[in-house]
Design a protein that fits this description.
The protein has one helix at residues 20-56; strands at residues 59-67, 77-82, 88-92, 98-104, 107-114, 121-128, 133-135, 138-140. With 165 residues, it is an alpha/beta fold. The radius of gyration is 35 Å and the shape is rod-shaped.
Length: 165
């Protein structure tokens, strides 16, 4: 084995003389890269945590509208009413009678379902929890909608003495 004697010409050689500015530049490079990587990792972590928190701070309400025999009812109007604030959101059931409300704040809700030819149905005190899907399927009954008219064109239930010819 031969040992080399004499000055080392490699920049990695610890015994080679380096000016102070070159030592500072090398030290700076060694410090800045890990710092940049740490900042990127921290930023990515905060973003992912924020997105996760937003997606799990709400719940979902879904269901299917059917008649008393179990046949699906398409096109029903479904209204989700927040009991605490009185605000509401409305959607329409699809061709297989399904509806969905996403990003629903936790709380207690009423669900009103209206479809022509069927009695209006109200589900009360439906609870929505964080990160959960609440099933609120509805069976509609055949009947008057409250806005039905008789053969004379008057509202059903109107008093005859107030009817005009």
């Amino acid at each position: 084995m031969t040992l080399l004697t004499g000055p080392c010409s490699s920049p990695l050689c610890p015994s080679s003389p380096k000016p102070d500015s070159q030592r500072f530049a090398n030290a700076r490079r060694l410090f800045v890269l890990p710092l940049k990587l740490a900042c990127v990792a921290l930023l990515l972590g905060v973003t992912l945590i924020s997105a996760w928190a937003q997606s799990t701070a709400t719940g979902t309400v879904s269901g299917q509208i059917t008649d008393q025999m179990g046949a699906v009812i398409a096109g029903g109007t479904v209204t989700l009413i927040d009991k605490a604030t009185g605000t509401s959101r409305t959607t329409t059931a699809n061709e297989v009678g399904r509806y969905i409300f996403v990003n629903v704040a936790p709380g207690t809700y009423d669900i009103r379902v209206v479809q022509a030819g069927f009695a209006q149905t109200l589900l009360s005190k439906v609870t929505v929890e964080i990160g959960q899907v609440t099933n609120a399927s509805v069976k509609l009954k055949l009947g008057a909608t409250g806005r039905e008219r008789n053969r004379r064109g008057c509202r059903v239930g109107a008093r005859p003495e107030y009817l005009s010819a």
